[in-house]
Design brief:
The protein is an all-alpha fold and 317 residues long. The chain has helices at 2-7, 11-34, 44-59, 67-82, 89-104, 111-135, 140-155, 160-173, 186-203, 209-216, 220-230, 245-251, 253-264, 272-292. Helix 4 runs antiparallel to helix 9, helix 10 (209-216) packs antiparallel against helix 13 (253-264) and helix 13 packs antiparallel against helix 14 (272-292). The protein starts with a helix and ends in a 25-residue tail after the last helix.
C-alpha cells in the first residue's frame, strides 16, 4: 500500500491527472456545445490516448520512436472513417501503424510481445469498435476500458507508466458515467488500445506473463463481439439492464470478473503456460455464458419497433 501511495506523488500520476481532468473538461465542453440530446461524441479514446502520450513525453523524453506509429494509427483510421469504409477495412489500414509501434518501441526485446501488440491493436481495436456500435449510448466502452486499465495497473510489476494511464483514464471515464457524454469512437478505440498495449509491454517486462494477463483485461470489450459473431441472435448486454447509470454498473460486473482473474491470478504467475491456461478458462466461461444467455422479452414500456433507440438516453435514475 505504501508503494501505491508513493506513486501518487510522482510526476507520472500528477501530470496524468492534470491532463485527464483537462480532457474531462474539454469533453464536457464539446458535449454541451453540440447538444445533450445527440448521440455521445466519439472522442473519449482520442482524449485518453493523446493525454497519455503527452504525459509520457513530459515525464520521459525518451518516448519518441513510437509517436509516428501512433499518429499513423489515428490518421489511417480517420481517413477510413471519412471515406465511410466498412469496419473490417479499419484494422487493415491501421496495421502499418501498429507494426511501427510494435517494432519501434524499445520497451521490450520479446518478439512475441511485439507480435501481441500488433494483433491486439488491430483485431482488438476492430472488436471494440463493433462493441461500441451496440453499447456506446450506455458508455460501456469507456467504462470497460477504465476497468481494464485498473487491471493492468494491478498486474504489471513496473507501475510508473501504468499509474500514469490510471491517472489519465479515470477522469476521462466520467465522460461516460453517470451521464454519457462521449464514447471511445473508432479512431479513439484503436489509439486507446495501442497506448494500453504499449504501457503493459513496458510495465510487464520484468515478469512477462503479466503482459498476457494485462492484455486479457480487455475482457468483454473483445469477448462480447465474438459472442455476437458466433450467434447473431445472442442477447446484447444492455438487454438485461436498465439503460441508466445503475444499469451500466450492473452490466460491468462480468467485466470486473474477467479483470480480477486476469490481473490478480493469471498475471501473477512467473511462467507463461499457467497464465495462458487461466485466461483461456476464463474466456471460455464468459463465451459459453454469453452464447447460452437467452434474450429477455421486451417490457411493456419499451418500444417494440426499435428496442435499441434509447441507447442514447443520457438521463440517469
Amino acid at each position: 500500500m505504501s508503494d501505491v501511495i508513493a506513486l501518487l506523488d510522482t510526476p507520472y500520476f500528477i501530470i496524468g491527472v492534470r491532463l485527464g481532468l483537462l480532457g474531462l473538461a474539454l469533453g464536457w465542453g464539446l458535449r454541451l456545445a453540440t447538444g445533450r440530446t445527440k448521440p455521445p461524441l466519439p472522442i473519449a479514446g482520442l482524449l485518453i490516448g493523446v493525454a497519455m502520450v503527452v504525459t509520457l513525453i513530459l515525464v520521459d523524453d525518451s518516448v519518441v520512436s513510437e509517436l509516428p506509429g501512433l499518429a499513423l494509427i489515428v490518421l489511417a483510421s480517420g481517413v477510413a472513417s471519412v471515406l465511410k469504409a466498412p469496419l473490417w477495412v479499419h484494422p487493415l489500414v491501421v496495421a502499418p501503424g501498429a507494426i511501427w509501434v510494435a517494432l519501434a518501441t524499445p520497451v521490450t526485446e520479446l518478439f512475441w510481445a511485439r507480435l501481441l501488440m500488433i494483433v491486439v491493436i488491430t483485431v482488438g481495436g476492430f472488436l471494440i469498435t463493433d462493441f461500441e456500435r451496440r453499447h456506446a449510448g450506455l458508455g460501456l466502452g469507456v467504462i470497460f476500458y477504465a476497468l481494464a486499465v485498473f487491471g493492468a495497473f494491478a498486474a504489471v510489476p513496473d507501475t510508473e507508466w501504468a499509474v500514469a494511464m490510471v491517472a489519465v483514464t479515470i477522469p476521462i471515464a466520467f465522460l461516460a458515467w453517470p451521464r454519457v457524454a462521449a464514447s471511445l469512437g473508432t479512431e479513439g478505440a484503436y489509439l486507446a488500445v495501442a497506448v494500453f498495449m504499449w504501457v503493459i509491454v513496458q510495465g510487464g517486462a520484468a515478469r512477462p506473463p503479466s503482459i498476457v494477463g494485462s492484455a486479457a483485461c480487455l475482457g468483454l470489450l473483445v469477448l462480447e463481439p465474438l459472442v455476437i459473431a458466433l450467434r447473431p441472435s445472442a442477447v446484447a448486454l444492455t438487454t438485461w439492464v436498465n439503460r441508466n447509470a445503475l444499469g451500466a454498473v450492473v452490466a460491468s460486473l462480468p467485466q470486473v470478473f474477467v479483470v480480477v482473474l486476469s490481473s490478480r491470478v493469471a498475471a501473477r504467475f512467473t511462467s507463461h503456460l499457467p497464465a495462458v491456461v487461466v485466461i483461456v478458462v476464463v474466456y471460455v466461461i464468459v463465451l459459453i455464458a454469453g452464447l447460452r444467455a437467452g434474450p429477455r422479452e421486451l417490457r411493456v414500456d419499451e418500444d417494440e419497433d426499435d428496442p435499441e433507440q434509447d441507447l442514447f438516453d443520457i438521463e440517469t435514475t
